[in-house]
Automatic annotation (TrEMBL), chains A, B:
<feature type="active site">
    <location>
        <position position="175"/>
    </location>
</feature>
<keyword id="KW-0520">NAD</keyword>
<comment type="similarity">
    <text>Belongs to the HIBADH-related family.</text>
</comment>
<dbReference type="GO" id="GO:0050661">
    <property type="term" value="F:NADP binding"/>
</dbReference>
<dbReference type="GO" id="GO:0051287">
    <property type="term" value="F:NAD binding"/>
</dbReference>
<protein>
    <submittedName>
        <fullName>NAD(P)-dependent oxidoreductase</fullName>
    </submittedName>
</protein>
<feature type="domain" description="6-phosphogluconate dehydrogenase NADP-binding">
    <location>
        <begin position="7"/>
        <end position="166"/>
    </location>
</feature>
<dbReference type="InterPro" id="IPR002204">
    <property type="entry name" value="3-OH-isobutyrate_DH-rel_CS"/>
</dbReference>
<feature type="domain" description="3-hydroxyisobutyrate dehydrogenase-like NAD-binding">
    <location>
        <begin position="169"/>
        <end position="288"/>
    </location>
</feature>
<dbReference type="InterPro" id="IPR036291">
    <property type="entry name" value="NAD(P)-bd_dom_sf"/>
</dbReference>
<dbReference type="InterPro" id="IPR008927">
    <property type="entry name" value="6-PGluconate_DH-like_C_sf"/>
</dbReference>
<dbReference type="Pfam" id="PF14833">
    <property type="entry name" value="NAD_binding_11"/>
</dbReference>
<dbReference type="GO" id="GO:0016491">
    <property type="term" value="F:oxidoreductase activity"/>
</dbReference>
<dbReference type="Pfam" id="PF03446">
    <property type="entry name" value="NAD_binding_2"/>
</dbReference>
<dbReference type="InterPro" id="IPR029154">
    <property type="entry name" value="HIBADH-like_NADP-bd"/>
</dbReference>
<dbReference type="InterPro" id="IPR013328">
    <property type="entry name" value="6PGD_dom2"/>
</dbReference>
<dbReference type="InterPro" id="IPR006115">
    <property type="entry name" value="6PGDH_NADP-bd"/>
</dbReference>
């Protein structure tokens, strides 16, 4: 079909963002990009993206804008700062935050956008740098369903398991549930390895034996072997996991629910960060015992 | 082949034991059985097993004896009591404890057996009542490798994933590592569900979204849906899980390793047992939040 494609903007060109933006460009969309460190945009600009110098400009030129930045404070600045997207946005625009960020902030951005006739979605992802590169991210979307459907073709350029979870904030809440499940499991995986090692077992044999049964998990199959090999390189940074757990804990507290496993995991990971491991992968929790 | 099959004894005819003994009988072995509650042996006796009234008699009649009883104190009684297997055993016998029990006790039984020329193996299983019924248990074996190989044909009647893990106690240690990994993960699975529910999410949709990614686990795929359906029936009893965690914690303390996740899980499950949930399935941890 020769329908005119909407112009897309992309803010935040880290490892994830670069791959994601690249898929959009490859699909033939006009792409405007902005990121704090201009150098990170070079490869995309060479492929045909247009660099601009602020979120404000993106808001002026693009009809659909995707953001994937660092922390909730960065999201807030990108959307609500004086040079921000919503502050300067046109009615009818679609703004999609794919940062893992606070559900409460997602609701606020939705409400602020709504006042100006701007469609805001929260759509955090799971799947890491490899998922981003291979365009098979899981994407968890909150906001209006009609808005979700309108931009679904864009999501489909980046992910496979794309789910609409309901009202604004529900994408972030779903991601938080995901991180909560991972947090305690990482403790169990590391403890099992520490126990097996101290018991004098052949740890690789133990993993082969227990990974396929009731103790089985993604982390046991994918991260435990890295630990056994002494590989603590980041698939997912400890500092980002801490950010997510802080958000999840804050939301859980607002709901009045106890999360003893999450609290324990956060305490342990903060200790690791203090030991200088914040840029290691989450499997470096194993070093808690060293 | 028309080789003479060894006579087998089986002690402990709970749901697991009954299925396991039945497979041995079906394979054409002569089977002597003993269990504290005679009624539990009825079906096997009707199929051709011979009931005897003590472990001592089993030790006299059988060349290979399998035990799968309740608690370490039961194991100790069955092996070392005045009517026990080792107390009354013949040199050259093979005694295999498939109870999930203490690694320290397994080492003790091995040593005591060794004094009398009796081959003792520890071989706890994983896979539950369905695994036992379908003869696809995981079996984790510790003891002498030659002894393991001698009785492997018997293990193959009951399981699929059968592993020799090294010296006496290592089967139990591997099972402990398995339970340690499960313990913390159960907290994470339940917390994620509690969070999702309180956040007002469609919990089934959340599970479908997060089960296939980095948060994925056997428990998330198999036990979380039961929780969503309010099904707390036992695949694995809380009281047995508590027994296992108490053993694991005791062994970890002997090794001088900290197990904060295991300790937390044990505290939470003990609270549930005190609430009257000891005969519920482990997924009833969810009720901790009710």
């Amino acid at each position: 079909m020769a329908t005119l494609k909407p112009t897309v903007g992309f803010i935040g060109l880290g490892v994830m963002g670069n791959s994601m933006a690249s898929h959009i460009l490859d699909a033939g969309y006009s792409l405007f990009v902005y990121t704090r460190t201009k150098k990170k945009a070079e490869a995309l600009v060479q492929k045909g993206a247009t660099w601009v110098s602020s979120p404000k400009e993106i808001a002026l030129y693009a009809e659909i804008v995707i953001t994937i930045v660092g922390y909730p404070k960065d999201v807030e600045e990108v959307y609500l700062g004086s040079e921000g997207l919503i502050t300067n946005g046109k009615p009818g625009s679609y703004f999609i935050d794919m940062t893992t960020s606070s559900p409460s902030l997602a609701k606020k951005l939705f409400a602020e956008g709504n006042k100006k006739g701007i469609h805001v979605l929260d759509a955090p992802v799971s799947g890491g740098d490899i998922g981003a590169k291979e365009a098979r991210l899981a994407i968890m979307v909150g906001g209006n369903e009609a808005d979700y459907e309108a931009v679904l073709p864009i999501f489909q350029l980046m992910g496979k398991n794309i789910a609409y979870l309901g009202e604004a904030g529900n994408g972030q809440h779903t991601k938080m549930a995901n991180q909560i499940a991972i947090a305690s499991n990482m403790i169990g995986v590391c403890e099992a390895l520490v126990y097996a090692k101290h018991a004098g077992l052949d740890v690789e044999k133990v993993l082969a034996t227990i990974s396929t049964g009731a103790a089985g998990s993604f982390s046991l199959s994918n991260l435990a072997p890295r630990i056994v090999n002494g590989d603590y390189s980041p698939g997912f940074f400890i500092k980002h996991f801490i950010k997510d757990m802080v958000i999840a804990l804050s939301e859980a507290e607002k709901m009045g629910i106890e999360t003893p496993g999450l609290s324990l995991a956060l305490t342990m990971y903060k200790k690791l960060a203090a030991m200088g491991e914040e840029n290691s992968g989450t499997q470096a929790l194993y070093k808690y015992w060293q």
